[in-house]
Amino acid sequence: MSGNFAAVDFVGDSDHKTLARPTQICGLRSALQPRISGTDALKLPFADDLPQSVRRLGRSILGGGARRDMAATIEHLAHLQYYPNADFRRSHHTLANLRNRHLGETCVIIGNGPSLKGMDLRQLSFAKTFCMNRGYLLWNEAGLTPDYFVAVNDLVIEQFHHEIAQLSCPLFIPWRHRRHFPACNRATFIEMRWQRRFFGNVSSGLWPGATVTFATLQLAFHMGFAKAILIGVDHRFAVDGPAHLEVLQQDDDLSHFSTNYFGRGVRWNLPDLLQSEYAYCLAKAAYEQDGRIVIDATKGGHLEVFPKMSLEEAARAPLPPKQSTGN
């Protein structure tokens, strides 16, 4: 593994795929002692909140498919039980109102790769914009505000939620991180699903697909955008190592547009480029099947899934003729 950072002990299983029947976990709730407290103490735990001993036991006695089914079921039911919660209902109402709000429009989804260095964000005035993760550093520097913000990575939110909460645009955050955004009506909380598919209607959640860009493509589809233009999605990193490995940055960040993006002392997860590509293929198919298009306008990007053209060409590219309001 190259790069100047230290590996951090990491326990987790991101390989969750299908949803099991609720009866498969009947009686499980009373047998668990989740690491939760306060008003949530009587609620079904999120799968990642289970004690490591319980997770190890499950891995030893269950097959991979059964383990994924059970974990996905626990995670989904952990969300559904919060329906009486005001933030839960507000978020579902917001997502319902956003459904097809931008039908037929163009959006720009802005990655955070080195290709963004020197980018004049005013060039994006022709479209709605999605900022992701610490991309707000670029917007703050320019004195501008994106239309929407998305973050799904645990480490990004845990370390930078105070900065994220200061953004004036609508925020899209996983439900499990709602505690970091108390009384923040700009934050819409979304369920993170473990089924490996493209969710065209994110009211029921979305699959992160190992990259916040895929999560954002699902949100954009939900909102009705007909053309999604990607910039700054370089799809290459200055470091390598096992996918999802948590590392501690010990030097300047050379994998993003700013050396302070994940600066010294910041914990982050190494990328999973293969799973990202699989997710991007799902997005490409979903957009094309509905008469929409994703265009990659990243300068010198290594991603080879979407059609490539310059930002100027992408802005002028005609919209696909077919439009559907979805289900």
Structure description:
This protein is of the alpha/beta class and 327 residues long. It has 2 domains: 17-80, no CATH class; 87-316, sialyltransferase cstii, chain A (Alpha-Beta Complex). Helices cover 30% and strands 12% of the residues. It has 9 helices and 10 strands. It has helices at residues 28-31, 52-61, 64-80, 86-98, 136-142, 154-164, 212-223, 273-289, 311-316; strands spanning 5-7, 106-110, 128-132, 148-150, 171-174, 187-190, 227-231, 246-249, 267-269, 293-296. The chain has a 7-stranded parallel sheet. The protein has a 3-stranded antiparallel sheet with strand order 1-8-9. Strand 4, helix 6 (154-164) and strand 5 (171-174) form a beta-alpha-beta unit. The longest helix has 17 residues, at 64-80. The radius of gyration is 20 Å and the shape is globular. The N and C termini lie far apart (45 Å).
SSE inventory with pairings:
Blueprint: E1 5-7, H1 28-31, H2 52-61, H3 64-80, H4 86-98, E2 106-110, E3 128-132, H5 136-142, E4 148-150, H6 154-164, E5 171-174, E6 187-190, H7 212-223, E7 227-231, E8 246-249, E9 267-269, H8 273-289, E10 293-296, H9 311-316
Parallel strand pairs: 2-3, 2-7, 3-4, 4-5, 5-6, 7-10
Antiparallel strand pairs: 1-8, 8-9
Helix pairs in contact: 7-8
- By CATH, the architecture of the largest domain is named Alpha-Beta Complex
Could you tell me how far the N terminus lies from the C terminus, measured between alpha carbons in angstroms?
A: 45 Å
CATH class membership of the largest domain: Alpha Beta
Q: In which range does the helix fraction lie?
A: 25-40%
> What is the global morphology?
globular
